[in-house]
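for the writeup, i need someone to sanity check this before i put it in the appendix. the sequnce is what the collaborator sent (i think, or maybe the updated version? ugh). structure was predicted straight from it, no edits. if anything looks off just tell me and ill rerun, i have time this weekend
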Amino acid sequence: MGTRIAVVGATGNVGRELFNILDERLFPADEVFAVASRRSIGKEISYGDRTLKCHDLEQFDFSRVDLVLMSAGGKVSKQWAPKIAKAGAIVIDNSSTWRMDPDVPLVVPEVNAEAVMGYAKKNIIANPNCSTAQLVVALKPIHDAVGIKRVVVSTYQSVSGAGKEAMDELWNQTRGVFVNDEPVMEVFQKEIAFNVIPQIDVFMEDGFTKEEWKMTVETKKILDPAIELVATCVRVPVFVGHSEAVHIEMNGPLSAKQARALLRESPGLMVVDDPAEDLYITPKECVGEWATYVSRIRTDKTVEHGLAFWCVADNLRKGAALNAVQIAEELLNRGILKPATAKARV
């Protein structure tokens, strides 16, 4: 029998995207189950040309599956990931709950694919924060070539990173501007329509937000603990797609031209960079794409070996669902998961 998969959090933004990507990438599974909270029992989820009905998380028998793709939030993950792992399934979790656990690998396949082999300690693999995932894909080839000493990154993160309710809030506030409705703030601290909010997650004692902290510690765990990183994370009135302005200080010389050529040949990246022709990528243009896009590559003359670039990706894909499926593919390629049987593929 081949791989059997359950998607926990099937009705959320990332959960639905997981089904899309499993289908698009022809992931070889014998069975796929949609699992969500009790209030979602019987809801229908599209999976390619099939329709799946949601199972209740509380009642589902996880011994029936080999792999669980979990995107149901930190509280659910903390309670259920160990139970599911104990039942024998490998959990790939999209929440922040397990990312900094020393016994749980934090994986971006283009960067540290070999780390998946650490899954056996707890039967859990963590997916990184959406803004971290695209960043480390772009940093990896440069770090391998000359080494990176320091990163300064400012993010422009879409509302979908905060869930469906956040997308609804942006829509309702935007519409309300034109009919003179008072803005209602339920998800964000301030009005998001026609505005930017320099706060994602809660503030910490040092003045940084938890999102900014995540980018620092996750980059160190995934790429190199010696890299210093400082982030400013900002929510912007965009539905899907995270953008980042990245400035790096390298250990050795690398020209913008050399960096452009290097990144063009690197896995998971697409370079769109011709200022003379106004060629660069915006978040709207990356929606639905698998790649992490890099544009506006240029020398940062404020440091000895400096480089600056613009980095954009679909946060529901590379920042979450796509990366999780790529981790599953890595488990498959290494023989930890079994491909679908011939009968199941017919």
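Residues 342-346 have pLDDT under 50 and may be disordered. The first strand starts at residue 3 and ends at 8.
thx in advance!!
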